[in-house]
Design brief:
- It is a single chain.
- The chain is of the alpha/beta class.
- It contains eight helices and twelve strands.
- Helix 5 packs parallel to helix 6 and helix 6 packs parallel to helix 7.
- It is elongated, with a radius of gyration of 20 Å.
- The two termini are 35 Å apart.
Length: 312
């Protein structure tokens, strides 16, 4: 999941200039500093700081390419606990500085190219509606309009198939917004523990939504696959744990830690998980395991399988 509060400053236009040769010690030092100060698991951060410093001293990062440096450091960052949100992420376009700005700039390009994250709404045979949310669950300040329109459009359907197979994550606030159309009453969906302030923040469905609700009684099937990640996993997991939806498809990627990003080079973003999810039903989350489908099948077959379940 990505925290999406905009940092100070406007978006920079993406640059087509070649990636600058990295100042490797400076990039690694800044990544280490951010890791030590923000990673949700301080004890693992200490191990990773020591690892990155040792690898730097050994010459393991003696590269001339920002992309290669990102790949090498990411592999080391994920070597202790396999956290898929913990990365030194390479961006082909130069990215703006400021906390969170690199992710927001990339999200904005995806948003503009995907009808606001709702690329497909379709009425299927037998009265079921298909709603695809992809490639991301965008910040609610951008996506509330398209989502409300799509969710209102499918409200009269007899059953809903929510396709998250190509959804890479996004904003937890948007997860709550979508869930609110599929529930009758205000419901506790998730809790996020944040290292900063050592606090727990609860996420609840909304008491009121724009437009019409699908409601809390008609069938909902959520389609998942190995590309389903982060906030998209939370959407599937929250509905599954509440007994509100049947998950159909393949096990998801397994990233349950909300992350923040910092630009440490014109083409490199240090993405560091700053919290962890705690589901109120299971008491845990989907980190490392992914969301396990109720009805396992290959992801390409999930739509047909869901339709077969709906129509008996």
């Amino acid at each position: 999941m990505t925290t999406t509060t905009p940092a100070t400053g406007a978006f920079d236009a993406p640059s087509a200039a070649p990636a600058a040769v990295p100042d490797v010690p400076a990039v690694v030092d800044e990544t280490v500093r951010l890791l030590a100060g923000h990673y949700v698991f301080p004890e693992i951060a200490e191990q990773l700081v020591a690892l990155l410093r040792r690898r730097l001293a050994e010459g393991a990062y003696d590269v001339r390419s920002a992309e290669e440096l990102g790949d090498l450091v990411t592999a080391d960052l994920q070597s202790v606990n396999g956290d898929p949100h913990l990365r030194l992420k390479y961006h082909p376009e130069q990215v703006p500085r400021g906390q969170g700005e690199a992710a927001l700039a990339a999200m904005r390009r995806d948003f503009d190219a995907s009808l606001g994250g709702v690329p497909r709404v379709q009425l299927l045979d037998g009265g079921a509606a298909l709603l695809e949310l992809a490639p991301l669950l965008f910040p609610l300040a951008w996506s509330a309009g398209p989502l409300a329109a799509a969710l209102t459009l499918v409200a009269p359907a007899d059953a809903l198939i929510l396709d998250l197979r190509s959804n890479r994550g996004g904003d937890p606030e948007t997860v709550a917004f979508v869930c609110s159309y599929l529930l009758e009453e205000r419901t506790h969906l998730n809790t996020m523990y944040a290292r900063e302030g050592d606090r727990y923040d609860q996420s609840w469905s909304l008491p009121h939504v724009p437009g019409a609700r699908f409601g809390g009684t008609k069938p909902v099937h959520v389609l998942t696959g190995p590309s389903t990640f982060s906030a998209a996993e939370e959407l599937a997991y929250d509905l599954q744990q509440l007994g509100r939806a049947t998950v159909v498809g393949e096990t998801t990627r397994g990233g349950a830690h909300p992350r923040e990003g910092w630009t440490v080079h014109p083409n490199l973003e240090a993405t560091i998980p700053v919290g962890r999810a705690v589901n109120p039903v299971s008491g845990t989350n989907w980190e490392g395991t992914g969301v396990l489908p109720d009805v396992p099948c290959p992801a390409p077959d999930a739509l047909d399988r869901a339709l077969a379940l709906i129509h008996g």
